[in-house]
Amino acid sequence: MIRFCSLGSGSAGNALIVEIGATRLLVDCGFSVQELERRMARVNLSPRDLTAVLVTHEHADHIGATAPLSRRYGLTVFTSPGTRLAARDDRFSSIQEIQADAPLEVDDAWIHPFTVPHDSREPTQFAFSDGDHRLVLMTDAGHVSPHMVEMATGADALLLECNHDPGLLAAGRYPPSLKRRIGGGYGHLPNHAATELLNGIDQSRLRHVVGMHLSTDNNHADLARQALAAGLGCAPCETAIATQDTGFDWRTTAPC
Ligand SMILES: [Zn+2]
Ligand SMILES: [Zn+2]
After folding, report:
1. Which has the closest alpha carbon to 201: 209, 190, 189?
2. For 207-221, how does the pLDDT look when each residue is reduced to its tens digit (9 = 90+)?
């Protein structure tokens, strides 16, 4: 059984908790240490309860206060060599470098880091397994690569970026260079890409899909829900999205 919840998702900060057996992982710490402590307390946890921290890439909404958190709580950080190189503060308590497509075991958790097209040094997103079920995190990708389709196929749970609506992005207040970055092939996934990815994968095991990393400026929850619903063949009200303030509540891959 995999249990997971988000403490917040979006360009102002990301943090995900994944529990497999006795192993409890934090994926990204895009908040200050104090803010992470506050958000963990909301789910009755403290950073002391963590086994390790995984970092997807060096953008501040993901790496955030990972280094001070690691030092304060003696936590090992798992990240790619490129992310470590690009980190402004890489004085982690200890570090384990990971490679895309080189799965690793951390106590009870099996972790498969995989590459995504994103404008950072060496980004990896993650698939997690307990041996029976698979949870796939897929955010901060400019387009859907064949490898991402492969990784999402057969997942039991998929946390999928629905960053923006291209029309809202084009009409919005961002400067042209930032619009090009976000909407480009190494930026962030638009809603319709989430639909396309869902349409392209085997959904026979899929029981959890949550829209992630929604832009507060260039998206609306309704539009993201419509995109997920179109990919899942369900009603928009049956879909789920993570928010910047509260993420999403605990979910589990165990049968209902
Ligand atoms: Zn991000
Ligand atoms: Zn990013």
Report:
1. 209
2. 999 999 999 999 999
